[in-house]
Every structure is written in C-alpha cells, then in structure tokens.
Amino acid sequence: MPATTASAPGKVILFGEHAVVYGQPAIAVPVNKVQARAVVAARPGQQGIQITAPDISLNKTIKDLPLDHAISRAIHLTLEALGVSEPPAFAIKITSTIPLASGLGSGAAVSVAVVRAVSQFLGRQLPAETVNQITFETEKIHHGTPSGIDNTVITFNRPVYFIKDRPIETIEIKQPFTIVIGDTGKPSPTAIAVGDVRKNYQENPGKYQALFDACGKIAGNARWSIEEYRLQSLGPLMNDNHNLLVEMGVSSPELDRLVAAAREAGAMGAKLSGGGRGGNMIALTLPDKAYKIAGALLSAGANNTIITEVRP
Ligand code: PMV
Description:
Elements lengths: L3 E12 L10 E17 L6 E5 L4 E4 L8 H13 L7 E7 L9 H16 L6 H16 L5 H8 L3 E3 L6 E2 L6 E7 L6 H14 L1 H23 L3 H18 L4 H12 L4 E5 L6 E6 L4 H10 L4 E7 L2
Parallel strand pairs: 3-5
Antiparallel strand pairs: 1-2, 2-5, 2-6, 3-4, 6-7, 8-10, 8-11, 9-10
Helix pairs in contact: 1-2, 1-3, 2-3, 3-4, 5-6, 6-7, 8-9
The structure holds (3R)-3-hydroxy-3-methyl-5-(phosphonooxy)pentanoic acid (PMV).
(3R)-3-hydroxy-3-methyl-5-(phosphonooxy)pentanoic acid (PMV) binds next to α4 and α5.
C-alpha cells in the first residue's frame, strides 16, 4: 500500500466568535499559510497503528491512547465510517505549522488531515460531509460545546457564513482583501473562555443575549460589506465586534495592546479572533500597509505575525 499525505489549513474567525455558540451567524476564512499535515505509511511485518506527533511529543500506538484522545478518536471514527474493523498495520506522522491553542484551528486541521490521509491510505476518500462530521466529534474533545465553525471552514477550505445546525453557506468574495494576524504568544484553551461565557450568560442572560444579538447583526452587515468589497465599512465593524468581545469578558491586556497597535499603525479595523483571552488577533488593511502593521504588532509584543489575503 503506497504512503498517503493530506494537509488542512488553519483558519481565523473574522466576525461572530462566541455569539456563534448561541445561534448567531459568524464568518470564518481559511488561512493556507499555516497547515497541518498527516502522512500514513504501511508498517510491513508489524502490528497496530503507530501515531507520532513530534510537536506535542506524542509517539504511541493507538491502543496506548485513551479513546477520548482527539487523534485516536479521529482514526477510530474514520475506520468506522469506512467499515474497516481490522485495518492493516500503519504508521501516521502528524506535523503542523499552526500554533496550538491560539484560535487558528489547529485541532480541527489536524483532525481533517488525519481523516483524509487514513481514508486515502485505506483506498477510499470519505465525502467532505463525513470528514466534517468526524472532525466536529473531535472538536467536542477540545472545546466541550463547539459551534462547528472550525471544522466547517477547515474541511471545506472556503470562506463561510456559518450558523450552527444550518447547511453551510459560502461567501462570495468580490475582491481579495488583506488581513494581518498577530499572535499574543499566550496559549488560551477555547473551552475555558467558552465555559466562562456560558457561566456569565446564565448569571446575566439579558446582558449576554443583547451582546450576542449585536455580534450577529455585525456578522450580517460584514457579509454584505465583504460581498460588495466595502472595506471602509468592514473595518469599523471589526472594531465594534472587538468592543462587544471586551464586554463579554474574553479579551486580555495582550490582545487589547495588539489591537490598539494595529489601529495606530493604520489598520482599517482590528479585533481579537477566536476564543480570546490570548491567542490571535486580526487587523484589516490595505496591502501597502500590511508590513508596517506587522512591524507595529511585533513591537507591541506579538511573537509572530502572518500577512494573508482573504480570497474566494
Ligand atoms: O477555536 P477558536 O479559539 O477559534 O474558537 C472557536 C470560536 C468560538 O466561537 C469561541 C467557539 C465555537 O465553538 O464556535
């Protein structure tokens, strides 16, 4: 059996994180400059499935991993979907350039790459909808109660307008536009921020429902601005969304510092992206200012930046 390789991109949420968990729309786009990769190869004369992921110091057989480990779960669900109960021995090696626990979708990207590489190795491609569903199951391990936005944008590798439990809608990007992503360097597990928002919502439903509704409205307006290439209105919508996330309690001093630095350096708008508390922020810019903004982010404490184009 020949070796197989599959890759999946990272992602950023442009609008609507957290509110999306409560049924509001959100917009997410793939980031192909960072990728997770899985390589599957036969292990002639040996038994079992060997999993190595040097980035997280993992080197174990699947039998030695708990069933609720995200990678082992992705493999088990793939075998189940293929109807394979006794797979041939194989080794899977996972590498990724997507920073961990920072809102760029590393968990979902690893799962998508694993499912695709294993199913190709076993001779059958699974439909995208099945890859998406399996990855959603692994996201539950990472996130607790995921909305499903990460697995969807990464599986389909297209900009999406996402509403929980609704069929996927892709966005028409009239003209590509540039964003700069700044990493605070502070890992922040999404499950904790999502859990805190839930607690606050339960204690203060009126306030939080109003915040979620306002985020949803912004995401709707942002879709229109993207489809019409109205960057002048898209930037302020990012700023408004960031303010709502601050009120929700999911920003952090590091994120606020990077957001302010991006705006001072000429960004049209900036906001945290993803679960918050750490992880990444994004800034909207015209292409000629992107390097200046990236430099300002590094000076303000970012440990990494990515300049990328959002395109169809
Ligand atoms: O994986 P992250 O950090 O981009 O978070 C996903 C976005 C949330 O809305 C915070 C959670 C979710 O499941 O939608």
